[in-house]
Amino acid sequence: MKGRNQRKISILCAAFICILSGWVQAEQMKIKVTADTAAVRTKPDIESQIVTLLDKGKILDADEKADGWYRVSVVLEDRGIEVKGYIHSSLVTEMTDTPTEPSLIEKEQTAEYKTSPKTNDIDFSGSRRSWLELKLGGRASYILAEDVNKGNEGFDQIWRDEFTHAGGEIQGEMTPFHIAYEFEGDIIFYIFPNVGIGFGSGYIYGSQKNEMLLTFSGSEETWITKPEIKTVPITASLYFLIPLGGGSYFTLDAGAGWYNVDYSWYWKGGYDGYWMELDQEAEASGVGYHAGLGFEISLAPHLGFFLEGRARYAEISGFEGTLRYEDSDGGLDIDEGKLYYWEEEVFGNKYTFVFVSESDTPSFTGLVGSIESVREAVIDLTGISLQAGLKIRF
Q: Which residues contact 196 (CB under 8 A, 6 or more apart)?
Protein backbone atom coordinates (compact mmCIF):
# COMPACT_ATOMS: atom_id res chain seq x y z
CA MET A 1 0.00 0.00 0.00
CA LYS A 2 2.78 2.34 0.90
CA GLY A 3 4.68 1.53 -2.31
CA ARG A 4 1.58 2.20 -4.35
CA ASN A 5 1.14 5.66 -2.80
CA GLN A 6 4.79 6.48 -3.46
CA ARG A 7 4.33 5.54 -7.14
CA LYS A 8 1.27 7.85 -7.37
CA ILE A 9 3.20 10.69 -5.78
CA SER A 10 6.10 10.13 -8.19
CA ILE A 11 3.76 10.20 -11.22
CA LEU A 12 2.09 13.41 -10.02
CA CYS A 13 5.46 15.07 -9.45
CA ALA A 14 6.66 14.06 -12.90
CA ALA A 15 3.49 15.40 -14.51
CA PHE A 16 3.82 18.64 -12.56
CA ILE A 17 7.44 19.00 -13.62
CA CYS A 18 6.52 18.39 -17.28
CA ILE A 19 3.70 20.96 -17.13
CA LEU A 20 5.93 23.46 -15.37
CA SER A 21 8.79 22.95 -17.86
CA GLY A 22 6.35 23.33 -20.75
CA TRP A 23 5.00 26.54 -19.25
CA VAL A 24 8.50 27.94 -18.72
CA GLN A 25 9.46 26.93 -22.24
CA ALA A 26 6.40 28.70 -23.62
CA GLU A 27 7.14 31.81 -21.67
CA GLN A 28 10.81 31.88 -22.71
CA MET A 29 10.46 30.72 -26.33
CA LYS A 30 12.40 32.99 -28.69
CA ILE A 31 12.15 32.95 -32.47
CA LYS A 32 14.12 34.70 -35.21
CA VAL A 33 12.78 35.86 -38.59
CA THR A 34 14.58 34.05 -41.42
CA ALA A 35 12.52 35.26 -44.38
CA ASP A 36 13.30 38.58 -46.07
CA THR A 37 9.89 39.85 -44.96
CA ALA A 38 7.57 38.10 -42.52
CA ALA A 39 3.90 38.91 -41.97
CA VAL A 40 2.36 38.96 -38.50
CA ARG A 41 -1.37 38.26 -38.79
CA THR A 42 -4.36 38.71 -36.51
CA LYS A 43 -5.21 34.98 -36.60
CA PRO A 44 -3.27 31.76 -37.31
CA ASP A 45 -4.53 31.76 -40.89
CA ILE A 46 -2.83 33.00 -44.06
CA GLU A 47 -6.12 34.60 -45.11
CA SER A 48 -6.32 36.78 -42.02
CA GLN A 49 -5.43 40.46 -41.94
CA ILE A 50 -1.79 41.55 -41.70
CA VAL A 51 -0.86 43.38 -38.50
CA THR A 52 2.64 44.38 -39.54
CA LEU A 53 5.66 43.18 -41.53
CA LEU A 54 9.00 42.29 -39.96
CA ASP A 55 12.47 42.35 -41.49
CA LYS A 56 14.86 39.45 -41.60
CA GLY A 57 16.78 38.94 -38.35
CA LYS A 58 14.06 40.30 -36.06
CA ILE A 59 13.95 38.41 -32.72
CA LEU A 60 10.59 37.86 -31.01
CA ASP A 61 9.20 36.33 -27.85
CA ALA A 62 6.58 33.64 -28.51
CA ASP A 63 4.30 32.29 -25.80
CA GLU A 64 2.49 29.65 -27.80
CA LYS A 65 2.93 27.40 -30.82
CA ALA A 66 0.12 25.43 -32.45
CA ASP A 67 -0.43 23.94 -35.90
CA GLY A 68 2.63 25.65 -37.37
CA TRP A 69 1.90 29.14 -35.98
CA TYR A 70 3.64 31.08 -33.19
CA ARG A 71 1.73 33.59 -31.11
CA VAL A 72 3.98 36.63 -30.61
CA SER A 73 3.93 40.12 -29.17
CA VAL A 74 5.00 42.97 -31.43
CA VAL A 75 5.25 46.70 -30.89
CA LEU A 76 3.75 48.92 -33.60
CA GLU A 77 6.24 51.77 -33.49
CA ASP A 78 4.16 54.16 -35.56
CA ARG A 79 1.28 53.80 -33.05
CA GLY A 80 3.27 53.12 -29.89
CA ILE A 81 1.21 50.08 -28.86
CA GLU A 82 1.93 46.39 -28.29
CA VAL A 83 -0.36 43.82 -29.92
CA LYS A 84 -0.63 40.05 -30.17
CA GLY A 85 -0.37 38.30 -33.50
CA TYR A 86 0.58 35.09 -35.26
CA ILE A 87 3.56 34.32 -37.48
CA HIS A 88 4.01 31.14 -39.50
CA SER A 89 6.82 28.75 -38.62
CA SER A 90 8.09 28.70 -42.22
CA LEU A 91 9.19 32.33 -41.80
CA VAL A 92 11.09 31.94 -38.53
CA THR A 93 13.34 29.60 -36.60
CA GLU A 94 13.44 28.80 -32.91
CA MET A 95 16.57 29.98 -31.22
CA THR A 96 17.47 26.56 -29.77
CA ASP A 97 20.38 24.19 -30.23
CA THR A 98 18.21 21.28 -31.32
CA PRO A 99 15.98 22.14 -34.25
CA THR A 100 12.91 19.94 -34.56
CA GLU A 101 11.55 18.33 -37.67
CA PRO A 102 8.32 20.11 -38.78
CA SER A 103 5.19 18.08 -38.64
CA LEU A 104 3.20 17.02 -41.69
CA ILE A 105 0.61 19.71 -40.92
CA GLU A 106 3.36 22.35 -40.70
CA LYS A 107 4.78 21.22 -44.06
CA GLU A 108 1.34 21.45 -45.68
CA GLN A 109 0.72 24.91 -44.23
CA THR A 110 4.18 26.06 -45.28
CA ALA A 111 3.54 24.91 -48.84
CA GLU A 112 0.13 26.60 -48.81
CA TYR A 113 1.63 29.82 -47.48
CA LYS A 114 4.33 29.93 -50.14
CA THR A 115 2.01 29.12 -53.03
CA SER A 116 -1.11 31.00 -51.97
CA PRO A 117 -0.20 34.31 -50.31
CA LYS A 118 -3.00 36.75 -49.68
CA THR A 119 -3.02 39.37 -52.42
CA ASN A 120 -6.23 41.30 -51.88
CA ASP A 121 -5.03 43.29 -48.85
CA ILE A 122 -3.95 46.89 -49.46
CA ASP A 123 -1.07 47.08 -47.03
CA PHE A 124 0.78 50.38 -47.14
CA SER A 125 3.44 49.20 -44.70
CA GLY A 126 4.43 46.42 -47.09
CA SER A 127 6.01 48.71 -49.66
CA ARG A 128 9.28 49.00 -47.72
CA ARG A 129 9.88 52.35 -49.42
CA SER A 130 12.52 54.82 -48.41
CA TRP A 131 11.50 57.92 -46.50
CA LEU A 132 13.28 60.24 -48.94
CA GLU A 133 12.99 60.40 -52.73
CA LEU A 134 14.29 62.58 -55.55
CA LYS A 135 11.80 62.98 -58.38
CA LEU A 136 13.19 64.06 -61.77
CA GLY A 137 10.96 64.47 -64.80
CA GLY A 138 10.21 66.25 -68.05
CA ARG A 139 6.90 67.01 -69.68
CA ALA A 140 5.24 68.53 -72.71
CA SER A 141 2.40 70.91 -71.87
CA TYR A 142 -0.52 72.47 -73.65
CA ILE A 143 -1.16 75.95 -72.21
CA LEU A 144 -3.93 78.43 -72.99
CA ALA A 145 -1.85 81.63 -73.33
CA GLU A 146 -4.98 83.50 -74.41
CA ASP A 147 -3.75 87.11 -74.19
CA VAL A 148 -0.47 86.17 -75.87
CA ASN A 149 -2.31 84.66 -78.83
CA LYS A 150 -4.95 87.40 -79.06
CA GLY A 151 -2.30 90.13 -79.06
CA ASN A 152 -0.19 88.26 -81.60
CA GLU A 153 -3.15 87.61 -83.88
CA GLY A 154 -4.42 91.20 -83.62
CA PHE A 155 -1.10 92.71 -84.62
CA ASP A 156 -0.70 90.15 -87.40
CA GLN A 157 -4.17 90.95 -88.76
CA ILE A 158 -3.77 94.73 -88.86
CA TRP A 159 -0.58 94.45 -90.92
CA ARG A 160 -2.14 91.87 -93.22
CA ASP A 161 -4.99 94.26 -93.86
CA GLU A 162 -2.58 97.15 -94.48
CA PHE A 163 -0.36 95.21 -96.90
CA THR A 164 -3.17 93.62 -98.86
CA HIS A 165 -4.97 96.99 -99.09
CA ALA A 166 -1.77 98.51 -100.53
CA GLY A 167 -1.51 95.72 -103.10
CA GLY A 168 0.94 93.42 -101.35
CA GLU A 169 0.68 89.65 -100.87
CA ILE A 170 1.42 87.56 -97.76
CA GLN A 171 2.17 83.84 -97.85
CA GLY A 172 1.85 81.93 -94.58
CA GLU A 173 -0.50 81.76 -91.61
CA MET A 174 -0.10 82.66 -87.95
CA THR A 175 0.21 79.61 -85.70
CA PRO A 176 -1.16 80.06 -82.14
CA PHE A 177 1.22 79.60 -79.21
CA HIS A 178 0.24 76.65 -76.99
CA ILE A 179 3.14 74.19 -76.54
CA ALA A 180 5.66 74.47 -73.70
CA TYR A 181 8.30 72.09 -72.36
CA GLU A 182 8.96 71.63 -68.68
CA PHE A 183 11.66 70.09 -66.49
CA GLU A 184 11.32 69.69 -62.73
CA GLY A 185 12.92 68.17 -59.68
CA ASP A 186 11.20 67.46 -56.35
CA ILE A 187 12.55 66.23 -53.02
CA ILE A 188 9.81 64.15 -51.35
CA PHE A 189 9.76 63.41 -47.61
CA TYR A 190 7.39 60.57 -46.65
CA ILE A 191 5.76 61.37 -43.31
CA PHE A 192 3.85 58.07 -43.59
CA PRO A 193 4.59 55.06 -45.81
CA ASN A 194 1.98 56.25 -48.32
CA VAL A 195 1.91 60.02 -47.75
CA GLY A 196 4.70 62.44 -48.62
CA ILE A 197 5.42 66.16 -48.83
CA GLY A 198 7.45 67.41 -51.79
CA PHE A 199 9.33 70.65 -52.42
CA GLY A 200 10.81 71.43 -55.79
CA SER A 201 11.58 73.73 -58.66
CA GLY A 202 11.82 73.55 -62.42
CA TYR A 203 11.96 75.37 -65.72
CA ILE A 204 9.20 76.01 -68.26
CA TYR A 205 9.99 77.18 -71.78
CA GLY A 206 7.73 77.85 -74.73
CA SER A 207 7.93 79.80 -77.97
CA GLN A 208 6.23 79.95 -81.34
CA LYS A 209 8.19 81.40 -84.25
CA ASN A 210 6.18 82.39 -87.34
CA GLU A 211 7.76 83.34 -90.66
CA MET A 212 5.76 84.67 -93.61
CA LEU A 213 6.81 85.82 -97.07
CA LEU A 214 5.77 89.34 -98.10
CA THR A 215 5.68 90.38 -101.74
CA PHE A 216 5.30 94.12 -102.37
CA SER A 217 6.24 96.29 -105.36
CA GLY A 218 8.26 93.47 -106.89
CA SER A 219 10.36 92.88 -103.76
CA GLU A 220 10.18 90.08 -101.21
CA GLU A 221 10.71 90.35 -97.47
CA THR A 222 10.37 87.97 -94.53
CA TRP A 223 7.90 88.77 -91.77
CA ILE A 224 8.89 87.26 -88.39
CA THR A 225 6.86 87.01 -85.19
CA LYS A 226 8.01 85.17 -82.06
CA PRO A 227 6.35 85.16 -78.61
CA GLU A 228 8.37 83.46 -75.86
CA ILE A 229 7.75 82.47 -72.23
CA LYS A 230 10.32 81.40 -69.63
CA THR A 231 9.16 80.40 -66.17
CA VAL A 232 10.84 79.16 -62.98
CA PRO A 233 8.25 77.71 -60.56
CA ILE A 234 8.90 76.92 -56.90
CA THR A 235 6.36 74.34 -55.75
CA ALA A 236 5.09 72.44 -52.71
CA SER A 237 3.01 69.28 -53.16
CA LEU A 238 1.28 66.57 -51.18
CA TYR A 239 1.81 63.05 -52.56
CA PHE A 240 -0.29 59.90 -52.07
CA LEU A 241 0.67 56.33 -53.01
CA ILE A 242 -1.73 53.44 -53.51
CA PRO A 243 0.15 50.09 -53.84
CA LEU A 244 -1.04 47.92 -56.72
CA GLY A 245 1.32 44.99 -56.06
CA GLY A 246 4.50 43.87 -57.78
CA GLY A 247 6.34 47.08 -56.91
CA SER A 248 3.84 49.31 -58.75
CA TYR A 249 1.76 52.21 -57.42
CA PHE A 250 -1.06 54.49 -58.38
CA THR A 251 -0.01 58.05 -57.51
CA LEU A 252 -1.91 61.22 -56.67
CA ASP A 253 -0.50 64.68 -55.95
CA ALA A 254 -1.73 68.23 -55.52
CA GLY A 255 -0.13 71.50 -54.51
CA ALA A 256 0.66 75.12 -55.23
CA GLY A 257 3.59 77.07 -56.61
CA TRP A 258 5.12 80.49 -57.03
CA TYR A 259 5.72 81.23 -60.72
CA ASN A 260 8.36 83.72 -61.85
CA VAL A 261 7.52 84.47 -65.50
CA ASP A 262 9.56 86.25 -68.20
CA TYR A 263 7.55 87.14 -71.30
CA SER A 264 9.02 88.46 -74.55
CA TRP A 265 7.62 89.22 -77.99
CA TYR A 266 9.57 90.01 -81.18
CA TRP A 267 8.31 91.21 -84.55
CA LYS A 268 10.14 92.31 -87.69
CA GLY A 269 8.62 93.24 -91.02
CA GLY A 270 9.28 95.46 -93.99
CA TYR A 271 8.91 96.09 -97.69
CA ASP A 272 10.92 97.59 -100.57
CA GLY A 273 14.12 97.77 -98.49
CA TYR A 274 12.45 99.38 -95.49
CA TRP A 275 12.11 97.43 -92.22
CA MET A 276 10.65 97.91 -88.74
CA GLU A 277 11.38 95.98 -85.55
CA LEU A 278 9.48 95.69 -82.28
CA ASP A 279 10.93 93.93 -79.24
CA GLN A 280 9.26 93.85 -75.81
CA GLU A 281 10.13 92.14 -72.56
CA ALA A 282 8.18 92.00 -69.30
CA GLU A 283 8.23 89.98 -66.09
CA ALA A 284 5.93 89.20 -63.16
CA SER A 285 5.30 86.61 -60.45
CA GLY A 286 2.19 84.95 -59.12
CA VAL A 287 0.59 81.87 -57.56
CA GLY A 288 -0.54 78.77 -59.45
CA TYR A 289 -2.09 75.44 -58.47
CA HIS A 290 -1.58 71.92 -59.81
CA ALA A 291 -2.84 68.37 -59.44
CA GLY A 292 -1.78 65.12 -61.03
CA LEU A 293 -2.34 61.39 -61.17
CA GLY A 294 -0.13 58.69 -62.56
CA PHE A 295 1.48 55.28 -62.38
CA GLU A 296 4.83 54.25 -60.91
CA ILE A 297 6.76 50.99 -61.19
CA SER A 298 9.96 49.94 -59.42
CA LEU A 299 12.93 49.20 -61.68
CA ALA A 300 15.32 48.44 -58.81
CA PRO A 301 15.27 48.70 -54.99
CA HIS A 302 16.23 52.38 -55.16
CA LEU A 303 14.93 53.35 -58.59
CA GLY A 304 11.44 53.79 -60.04
CA PHE A 305 9.91 54.99 -63.32
CA PHE A 306 6.74 57.11 -63.38
CA LEU A 307 4.26 58.37 -65.95
CA GLU A 308 1.94 61.17 -64.87
CA GLY A 309 -0.78 63.44 -66.23
CA ARG A 310 -1.09 66.85 -64.62
CA ALA A 311 -3.43 69.85 -64.74
CA ARG A 312 -2.40 73.37 -63.75
CA TYR A 313 -4.20 76.65 -63.09
CA ALA A 314 -1.95 79.71 -63.17
CA GLU A 315 -2.99 83.15 -64.46
CA ILE A 316 -0.11 85.57 -63.93
CA SER A 317 -0.61 89.34 -64.24
CA GLY A 318 1.09 92.55 -63.13
CA PHE A 319 3.81 92.45 -65.81
CA GLU A 320 6.21 95.36 -66.11
CA GLY A 321 8.87 95.82 -68.77
CA THR A 322 10.04 97.69 -71.87
CA LEU A 323 8.95 98.05 -75.49
CA ARG A 324 11.66 98.93 -78.03
CA TYR A 325 10.93 100.20 -81.55
CA GLU A 326 13.57 100.56 -84.27
CA ASP A 327 13.49 101.02 -88.08
CA SER A 328 15.89 101.17 -90.98
CA ASP A 329 15.65 104.99 -91.15
CA GLY A 330 17.30 105.27 -87.74
CA GLY A 331 14.14 105.63 -85.76
CA LEU A 332 14.39 104.46 -82.13
CA ASP A 333 11.87 104.62 -79.30
CA ILE A 334 11.76 102.86 -75.93
CA ASP A 335 8.74 102.73 -73.60
CA GLU A 336 8.70 101.47 -70.06
CA GLY A 337 5.57 100.52 -68.18
CA LYS A 338 3.03 97.78 -67.65
CA LEU A 339 1.92 95.11 -70.09
CA TYR A 340 -1.64 95.92 -71.19
CA TYR A 341 -4.35 94.19 -73.16
CA TRP A 342 -6.85 96.29 -75.12
CA GLU A 343 -9.11 96.35 -78.14
CA GLU A 344 -8.98 99.18 -80.65
CA GLU A 345 -10.92 100.17 -83.76
CA VAL A 346 -8.75 101.01 -86.77
CA PHE A 347 -10.25 101.95 -90.17
CA GLY A 348 -13.56 100.42 -89.17
CA ASN A 349 -12.10 97.09 -87.97
CA LYS A 350 -11.48 96.02 -84.38
CA TYR A 351 -8.08 94.61 -83.41
CA THR A 352 -6.60 93.27 -80.17
CA PHE A 353 -3.21 94.46 -78.89
CA VAL A 354 -0.90 93.38 -76.05
CA PHE A 355 1.95 95.84 -75.52
CA VAL A 356 3.99 97.51 -72.80
CA SER A 357 2.79 101.07 -72.30
CA GLU A 358 3.68 103.97 -70.05
CA SER A 359 0.05 105.10 -70.05
CA ASP A 360 -2.87 103.29 -68.45
CA THR A 361 -4.88 104.23 -71.59
CA PRO A 362 -2.68 102.65 -74.27
CA SER A 363 -3.44 103.08 -77.98
CA PHE A 364 -1.91 101.77 -81.20
CA THR A 365 -3.16 104.66 -83.34
CA GLY A 366 -2.97 107.36 -80.69
CA LEU A 367 -6.73 107.91 -80.88
CA VAL A 368 -7.71 107.23 -77.28
CA GLY A 369 -11.41 107.38 -78.01
CA SER A 370 -11.20 104.27 -80.19
CA ILE A 371 -9.94 101.90 -77.44
CA GLU A 372 -11.94 99.68 -75.09
CA SER A 373 -11.58 96.69 -72.72
CA VAL A 374 -8.28 97.99 -71.32
CA ARG A 375 -6.80 95.84 -68.56
CA GLU A 376 -3.47 94.38 -67.44
CA ALA A 377 -2.44 91.52 -69.67
CA VAL A 378 -2.47 87.97 -68.28
CA ILE A 379 0.05 85.29 -69.16
CA ASP A 380 -2.12 82.20 -68.75
CA LEU A 381 -0.11 79.06 -67.98
CA THR A 382 -3.29 77.08 -67.29
CA GLY A 383 -3.26 73.78 -69.14
CA ILE A 384 -2.56 70.06 -69.10
CA SER A 385 0.64 68.07 -69.49
CA LEU A 386 2.07 64.56 -69.73
CA GLN A 387 5.22 63.84 -67.75
CA ALA A 388 7.67 60.93 -67.49
CA GLY A 389 10.73 60.52 -65.32
CA LEU A 390 12.58 58.69 -62.55
CA LYS A 391 12.35 58.50 -58.78
CA ILE A 392 15.59 57.87 -56.88
CA ARG A 393 15.11 56.54 -53.34
CA PHE A 394 17.59 57.12 -50.56
A: 133, 188, 189, 190, 238, 239, 241
Q: Which domains are present in the chain?
A: 27-118 (2.30.30.40), 130-393 (2.40.160.20)
* pLDDT, tens only, 237-247: 999 999 998 88
The b-or-e profile of 260-290 (16+ CB within 10 A means b, else e) is ebbbbbbbbbbbeeeebbbbbbbbbebebeb
Q: Is-contact 93 106, C-beta < 8 A?
A: no
User: Cα dist. 100→38, 116, 201 in Å?
Assistant: 21, 25, 59
Which residues does 353 contact at the CB level (< 8 Å), separation at least 6?
Answer: 151, 154, 155, 341, 342, 343, 344, 362, 364
- Tell me the pLDDT tens digit for each residue of 117-152: 443 444 444 444 679 999 999 999 999 999 999 999
Helical (H) or strand (E) element with 356: strand 349-357
